[in-house]
Predict the structure.
Amino acid sequence: MTAATTPRLRRAAAPRLDTRADRPVRRSPGLTIAMTLFLVYSLVPLAWLVINATKTQPGLLDSFGLWFADDFALVDNVRQVLTYNDGIFVRWFANTLLYVVVGAGGATVLATFAGYGLAKFDFPGKRAVFAVVLGSIAIPGTALAVPTFLMFSELGLTNTIWAIIIPSLISPFGLYLVWIFAQDSVPTEVLEAARVDGASELRTFLTIALRMMVPGIVTVLLFAVVATWNNYFLPLIMLNDPALFPLTIGLQNWNAQAVGVGSTPIFHLVITGSVLTILPIVVAFLLLQRYWQSGLTAGSVKA
Amino acid sequence: MSVAAAPPPALAETAPRRRTQRSFTGLFFTAPFLAVFAFVFVTPVLYALYLSFFRDRLVGGRSFVGVENYVQVFGDAKFWEGAGRVGLFLAVQVPVMLALALVAALAIDSARLYGTGFFRIAIFLPYAVPGVVAVLMWGFMYGDRFGLAGNINDLLGSQVLAPLTPQWILVAIGNIVTWQFVGYNMLIFYSSLKTIPSELYEAAAIDGAGPLRIVRAIKIPALRGAIVIATIFSIIGSMQLFNEPNILRTIVPNVISTFYTPNMYAYNLSFVGQQVTYAATVAIVMGVITGVIAYVVQLRGQREATR
């Protein structure tokens, strides 16, 4: 695959240090204004969501979308979201956390071990592993989901938490990222030195290599967290029991409630629930910026 | 660039050997991943392949039918309607999104913006929003009851904006996908731009090259690999289009059919129609088509790189 061949072609450039400071570049108001339009496109929907999370259900219908209604109902909306239907939203939130911690956490651990093993050792069948795993990046996840469901239902795994967790454990792209990162950031000499000192392979990995791979691992973790947090198709087909739903499926169910005949629309809860759903992940991205941006740069040196 | 990278011949011969104690240590690190991988990637694919040669009948249960399912897919108008739709979608949406991402990455890399860091993170932010929330949010905004489209229509006193009608729904979906992924692709391009050695810029500046010339002669060629990868990922994403139309369907069931995309078709075949073996066949055919297109794009990318 692409990924397998390109790294070798372009291992040249070491990340460019910011020498721009000494290159005199004039800032351009024109370009800044043009890019501001882009910024508006990216942020207006989020602004719409946050503003409308402060409105009551009737307020939603009779006020302008991008400004606040007369009564500020954010606190009440949050309270309603958390208590509606015996606090099912809190349950969904906890489920999502479980899937993310075990699924994305497990995916990161597996990818870290395997990426390191592929980058720093040679073993029988390594080339085959490469070809298959990197080839699998091209397999549409959703194309896989239907067969996975059929298989899991034969095994009696559907409608259990394992139906969500087990498929989340594999991230071929994460493996690729760790592999590249380990190759670059863990010098073979250091490992040799540790071996000469008599450290076991596992100990060398845990005490020396792991620390050098942190930015790469954080990047993989963050992207695995997003993938699991945002997972929709898999839980949609695997789960029937609302008590097992993650947030995405729960919100979609609330939204669908309004369509049925004689049902009460709860759009204000869908909107406020959406804000609560994206908040943790946005905060994680903002806080961990330094790590994932350097991790991505390292990845793209070769990508 | 690759020439500069190649290690001196002597080193090249010894370096691999040094860590080539061919042992099973590496396998020990890799085995847990491989075990789970075999279970959730390889087995379902094989199982789907197996299923695609069978058919469930009311009388007699599951029986072997050879390639009958495949023959049926190739003559299935519903499948081809969906396939044609995602084909159209990717032919328009992917170039638009990647062009926007490229422009944004170049602008941010140019150091000519005020507040570069803010632009970078803000444009990337939609990627962190769950697809379901993105679709619900845009779905609300598209609506004419309390959405922005309704507000704008009221303002203009007309019905010009109607994203949820059959004519515009594919554009509306394209907009949601673009909104979600343009920042992600921008970041891939931007990361790749950061790896261009600064000597190249210095040399270009000495030769008197202007900023646009530098973009054309240095930056775009350096981005080729990243562009190929981003294109392949975007194509894979478009081919498996499911979430956006499936969620919008709850709002406008009359506009989006159950076979709107091949993935929705496969989903509805197995969960509503109970035709699991035919659904598996549809999934396989779609996977093969995706693989072929991705492969062609990769070949073209490589050929251009060597030209």
Observations:
- The mean pLDDT of chain B is 84.
- Chain B touches chain A through 116 residues (CB under 8 Å).
- Residues 25-66 of chain B form one domain.
- The radius of gyration of chain B is 25 Å.
